[in-house]
Amino acid sequence: MSASEKEPIVIDQHLDHPRTFRDNTYVYPVISRRSRGVSIGVNLNPDKICNFDCIYCQVDRKTSAVTRFVDTEMILSELAATIDMVESKQLFHEPEFQNVPEPLQRLNDIAFSGDGEPTTARDFDVIVKRVAELKKAKGLDHVKMVLITNATMFHRPKVNEALTTLDANQGEIWAKLDAGTEPYYKQIDKSLIPFHRILTNLHEAALVRPLVIQTLFMRVDGQAPSEAEIDAFCDRLNDILADGGQIDRIQIYTVARRPAVESVSALTKPELDRIADQVAQKVPRLVERFYGPEAI
Ligand code: SF4
User: Fold this and answer.
1) Residues 12-295, CATH architecture
2) Percent of the chain having pLDDT more than 70?
């Protein structure tokens, strides 16, 4: 690992991310490895519908959805109450948050994520704007707004508008790219959306602001991705950089919780290190590593 790469500390709460909290429908706090602190998640897909069908997805689709509707006012009310719990430290008296070390008790971000692709939510632009207003009203300019996305909808004007709102409010876009080639993309993300749509969206978004690229590599039937696939993945990122696109960092992680498909398992630490080393050698950007449970 080079000096420019970081390996975050890992605690039990990092490996258990229920998207439910008390009576909340949409908002849930987690201790996030990637955030290195508290991330308040806003689940904009309570219906559990996603336009990807990733073979590693950890969303529990065997149990039925609590609701199919996204209620903006309820989101804001749950979010305000959860922010207050974190800021007052009351959260860390709750049983599942009692042992969180002090450095991880800071509120790092509000993250739009959840049980599907958040940008497909009907009022996504309005919700992002209202959350930004709430964050500002609470004096939380140091807290980021993070969009965790598969980048499939960036070309839609309302989504693009929401990205602009994020830019003006300490936003970061954490965009998924799990493959370097169309066949591997189809095997892993199992979407009808063409690979080139995602690549074009990433290119265009990266021309406007730096992106964080999030990549999950895994074993499928015991096999890690090939060196050729990782090379192609690096080529896709270098294509973005060559066009003047901005990439802040690349997060490479593996399966941390039970995936949807049994043939999927976590990379070992040496496998993830080999891939991260290959990426770090070929793409001139910070590479962060997030190991699976066996390595922790
Ligand atoms: S994009 Fe996320 S929510 Fe959708 S299937 Fe993939 S991992 Fe699951």
Assistant:
1) Alpha-Beta Barrel (3.20)
2) 92
